[in-house]
């Protein structure tokens, strides 16, 4: 910390449509800013911090993946004659200076200087949206494009998918659902929720389309996930729903710990995936434990 300056650490929640971004992480170097983090840090430059502001992201998301609520911590050092920003002023200032309309800061909190947005998270929940009854991707309503995986099938065996999803619950070695490039030291994860349910009719489709289009939600909750684990689990559950796999085969795939098997190579498209919430003990905020 520089002389004559005061540092304050904040936790901020933010959301984004991932369609235009190369993931949430910043793209460094000569490339134009294509990560969500790039735009957040560009907005933070206008806060006149004594040292550059860097966002430490709680949950990495890939290109095309969306977030209803992601989180990050950041430090702001103001001159000694300037008090720290209030959380409300910080939220408003960041939104004022954000240059991309697909990003919005939801809320901010003051946190201790040792707080870490990634390590302190106690839970992360992902939502994956499916649509059935869409013969071609261009038949999907424009307001739902890049926000769900449009399957050509007219229906899914949801009961079989729900049965298969139960095999993911609990603590397992998820090596079979881990993509290459994962930085995780261990493939063991504890999945607390794995559900499949029908969505209410989308408000963005015409009545005549609602007779053929059906939307479905898959939700997964854990303290943390492996690289592309949710999209690979989703792809296997969809295979069950389409009759290409039996529910019992999902347990066999999980037990195999083989990420290169025939069915494990399937990865659900990024554009159907949403980071729904990140939870912290003792903090309020969007989707956060009180």
Brief sketch in words of this structure:
This protein is α+β, with helices and mostly antiparallel strands.
Structure summary, number of beta strands: 10
How much helical structure, as a percent, in the residues?
10-25%
Major sheet: size, sense and barrel closure?
A: 10 strands, mixed
Unreliable residue stretches? none
How far apart are the first and last residues' alpha carbons, in Å? 32 Å
User: What is the arithmetic mean of pLDDT?
Assistant: 91
The helix-and-strand class reads alpha+beta
What percentage of amino acids are in beta strands? 25-35%
**Radius of gyration, Cα only, in angstroms?**
21 Å
| Total of helices | 6
Along the chain, the helix and strand elements come as EHEEHEEEHEEHEHHE
What shape does the CA trace take?
globular
Question: Which SSEs are present, and which pair or pack?
Answer:
Elements: E1 5-16, H1 36-44, E2 56-57, E3 66-79, H2 87-97, E4 103-111, E5 123-132, E6 149-150, H3 158-165, E7 170-173, E8 188-198, H4 207-210, E9 214-222, H5 229-241, H6 247-256, E10 273-279
Parallel strand pairs: 3-10, 5-6
Antiparallel strand pairs: 1-3, 1-4, 2-3, 5-9, 5-10, 7-8, 8-9
Helix pairs in contact: 1-2, 3-5, 3-6
């Amino acid at each position: 910390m520089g002389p004559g300056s005061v540092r304050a650490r904040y936790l901020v929640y933010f959301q984004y449509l991932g369609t235009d971004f190369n993931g949430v992480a910043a793209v460094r170097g000569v490339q134009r800013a294509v990560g969500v983090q790039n735009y957040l840090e560009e907005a933070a430059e206008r806060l006149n911090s004594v040292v550059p502001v860097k966002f430490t992201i709680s949950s990495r998301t890939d290109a095309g993946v969306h977030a209803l609520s992601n989180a990050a911590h950041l430090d702001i050092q103001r001159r000694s004659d300037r008090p720290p920003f209030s959380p409300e002023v910080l939220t408003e200032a960041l939104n004022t200076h954000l240059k991309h309309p697909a990003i919005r800061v939801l809320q901010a909190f003051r946190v201790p200087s040792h707080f870490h947005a990634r390590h302190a998270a106690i839970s992360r929940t992902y939502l994956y949206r499916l649509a059935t009854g869409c013969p071609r991707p261009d038949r999907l309503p424009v307001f739902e494009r890049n926000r769900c995986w449009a399957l050509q099938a007219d229906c899914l065996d949801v009961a079989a998918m729900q049965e298969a999803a139960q095999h993911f619950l609990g603590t397992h070695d998820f090596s079979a659902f881990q993509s290459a490039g994962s930085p995780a030291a261990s493939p063991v994860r504890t999945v607390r929720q794995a559900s499949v349910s029908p969505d209410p009719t989308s408000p963005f489709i015409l009545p005549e389309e609602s007779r053929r289009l059906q939307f479905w939600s898959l939700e997964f909750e854990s303290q943390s996930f492996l690289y592309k684990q949710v999209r690979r689990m989703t792809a296997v559950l969809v295979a069950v729903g389409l009759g290409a796999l039996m529910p019992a085969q999902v347990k066999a795939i999980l037990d195999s710990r083989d990420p290169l098997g025939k069915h494990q190579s399937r990865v659900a498209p990024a554009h159907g995936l949403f980071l729904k919430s990140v939870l912290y003990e003792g903090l309020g905020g969007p989707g956060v434990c009180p």
